[in-house]
Amino acid sequence: TGSTIYRQVTELETGSTIYRQVTELETGSTIYRQVTELETRSTIYRQVTELETGEFQPFRWRIA
Fold first, then answer.
1. CA-to-CA separations, 6 to 18, 22, 27, in angstroms, rounded
2. d(CA 59, CA 49)
3. How far apart are CA 30 and CA 3, in angstroms?
4. CA 13 to CA 38: how far, in whole Å?
5. Higher-confidence residue: 2 or 54?
6. I need a labelling partner for 51 at 20 to 30 A (CA). Which of 25, 27, 31, 38 fits?
7. 2-45 pLDDT, tens digit each
8. Where along the chain do its domains lie?
């Protein structure tokens, strides 16, 4: 049985900055994921929150 991913993307673009919020619900292994991105000309700030089968993964920041 394949998994189903429900994804909602909200974007706000102002000049050279993009604010993006992605909410995903994956039914195969029941993963709830929320991604918040702030993208400037040279830097992407990304915050990922995951909830998987009752286990909470703390906030993880990655600067790409």
1. 22, 10, 8
2. 5
3. 9
4. 10
5. 2
6. 38
7. 778 888 888 998 888 889 988 888 776 677 888 888 888 888 89
8. 5-63
List CB contacts of 11: < 8 A, sequence separation 6 or more: 18, 19, 20, 21
Read off the tokens for 62: 């990655």
Tokens of 14: 């102002």
Q: Which two tokens stand for residue 63?
A: 């600067």
**Sheet holding 31-39: strands in order across?**
5-14, 17-26, 31-39, 44-52, 55-63
Return the beta strands (E) in the chain as ranges.
5-14, 17-26, 31-39, 44-52, 55-63
> What confidence score (pLDDT) does residue 60 get?
55
